[in-house]
Each structure stands twice: as structure tokens, then as C-alpha cells.
Amino acid sequence: MGRPVTGPTPPPPGTERRLHVLTPLRRAWVPVGATAGLVAQQGERAQEWALALPVWLRLAVLAGLVLVFGTYGFLSWWFTHYAVTDTELRIRTGLLFRRTAHIRLDRVQAIDVTRPLLARVAGVAALRIDVIGTEDKDELAFLAERDAVALRAELLARAAGFAPAEATALGEAPERELLRVPVRDLVVSLLLSLDAWAAIAAGLGGPVLVWTLSSNPWATLVALLPLLGAGWKGSAARFLAGYDWRVAESPDGLRLDHGLLDRAHETVPPGRVQTVRIVEPLLWRRRGWVRVELNVAGSKNGILVPVAGREAAHALIARVLPGADPAALAFAPSPRRGARWVVPVWWKGYGLAVSQELFAARRGRLCRRTEIVPHAKVQSVRRTQGPWERMRGVADVHVDTGAGNTVTARLRAADEAGALLYAQANRSRTSRATARPDRWMA
What we know:
Mean pLDDT: 84
């Protein structure tokens, strides 16, 4: 039995509901952002046009824009409804062009609760729903925090096959904390990341270089914005997103809570993880730290933990890939005789390990990446060999998974690659036959 979520009594199935009354404020920012982008693009012409107008007319234009944007936000909220039926979540949106999304509950992959900074201040949250077979998430933004948590619990219970009345009574599934990333470890890991320093250097040095060469403020501004964005994404944004990273276990999967300004509550569904990637930057290895990334079918949840000790990371991987033991994998390097002429120096970073449950390939020397895929998740196996590889007697073996990801064992001996192709196809077929069904709250 889960932890009941206190909140208003859910309406009967099929009853249409509205989003939170503060939603129009968020919707109004869409045309505001578009207008700001248009003004920034026009640059000097927009400035000249504004200065040519009298003050009263500028104020009138500003008031008119506020009225138009506010009306758009209100009407957009007014025409948005959602309803939960016995079989689907239905979302109707659109002011001029109506759109109705029918989300089958048995196709729900994951439901995340996100709380941006201003939304946390206002006490609201957004639900983002992953559905099998779609690239983009459907979103309900915004709901009162209590309603969002209650609706998430109800949808997950119904996706697991519980009856509507029972799903409402179950509430949120209990959880047990497995790991919490200390803030100090997160900060040190970023300081030891070469890509973070490269992003900062590009963000600061790029605009200076453009200004030095062109002396044009608008060209510098155009170069500044994307470079600053890249620098922000590679450094400060990673800290903000990884702050207070917490991993917990519950019947509906592993739960990830993280974020300093925008708080996210994500779920890694059980049995849906296709590939796990262990990333080991050069300066992290002495401390035994790794980052674990995921490839989940139909979901954009890409990171399991931003930094953790190797043993703790392996324990988490065993949770998302039951039966997997990454520590027991024994990697065989590519053959020196042929590989060193195909990829000089870097060939030493390639390795392959195959166990009873896993297919794993390793690459990289400065930043070592180990990709692991369970045999049961393999959709197809391919062997490729270019002209130069054929001359040197080596070949690549590609393993494709259901999420569109490919794990490649590079530069294997040609005979070994041929035998691996058929052996892996057989292992995948037999593993799929004995795999556990993917099911919520199983």
C-alpha cells in the first residue's frame, strides 16, 4: 500500500478539469519572448524606431502589448482542459487550432513532476508524461503541487492496471533512499571536468575574439549569446541541475530528485532501460568517481547520477539492470597488430566484454566511456568492415537497441567479429524469451 495523497476528492472519470489559475501568466511569456527576440534581431533599427516616437505613444504601445499578451495567456488557459478516463488521459489545447492528445494509460512510460523556481514560489508544479512511441513529452503545466502529486500517483496506479477507485486510494508509492550526492562532490567533480572549463573558456573568449576582429557591438552580441549559453550549460547549469541529487527506490521505479532552482522529480521506469553508459573523465579516476547515463525507451531521462563512487554506481546499475554486475566484466583490448594502424594511439581505449547477461564496449582514453546493454534488449546485430579495416584484418560489431541507440565494439579481429555476430544474435534471442515483462509496480 502506498502513502495516501491528501487532496480534493477526484471527480468522476471523464470529467474535464482546468489547469491552475496562475497558468495564464506562464502562457503569456511565449509571445513576450518572441517579441523580445524580434526586437533583438532588428537591433539598431528597433532602437531608432522607438526613439522616433513620442513618450506617450511608446507607453501606449507598451500597454497594448501587455493587454494582447495577457489576453493570449488567459484564452490559452481557458481553452485547455484535461480529463482522466478509464483507459486514457485526454488533453485538449489550442486557441485557434484545436488539438486533442489521447494518451493511453497502458502506454505511459514515466511521469515526472517538475517545479521551476517561480512555480515553487507560487506553489504549483508541472507534470511531464513520457509515452512509448513518441519523441516529445506531453505536459500539464501548471497544477497545484498537491494536485500534481495526486494525479501522478493516480495515473501510475491506473497504468499498472488498478481500478479507478483503487488507484485513487493507493496514493503515492513508498520509497527508500539509495544514494544522495554531496554538494561538495558535485562542485569538485565540475572543477575536475575538462569539458566544463572548455565551455567556460569558449563562452568568455569567443565574444572577445569577435569584438577584436570586427569592433561591431551587434556582431559581438550575436556571438555572445550562444557562446554564453554553451558556457552556462556546461558549467553553472550542470551544478544547478545536479544540486542535491537524490536516488530512491520505489515500486514504480527509481526516483530521481534534483535541482537547486528548478526542482525535478523523475522516474526511471522498471525494465525500460536499454543502455547504461559509465563515464570516467581523466581527472576523476584517482578519486574513483564516475557518471552514469541512461538510454530509456520513450523517455528523455538521461542521467542516473551525475557523480558517484564506482561501487555505489555499480549498485545503482544493478537496480536498473537486474542481474547485472558491471564490476565483474573483464574487458579484452583490440588486437594491437591490426588496430594500431586503423586508429593510431586511441585504439588502446577500445575494449569488449561479454558476460552471461551483458554486452559491454569501452572507448576513449582521456574520457573513458563504457556502454552496457543487456542481451534481452538487443534488437539487431551488425558487422561492418571498411577497406582499410579489411586490409588490417579487423572489423566492428554494432549492437542496436530498441531506443535507437547503438553500442559498437570497435576494431575486433575479423574472425572474432564473425563469431561474435552469430553468438550475440543467439544470446539476444534466448534472453528475450526468458526476460521479465515490463510492468509498473510489478
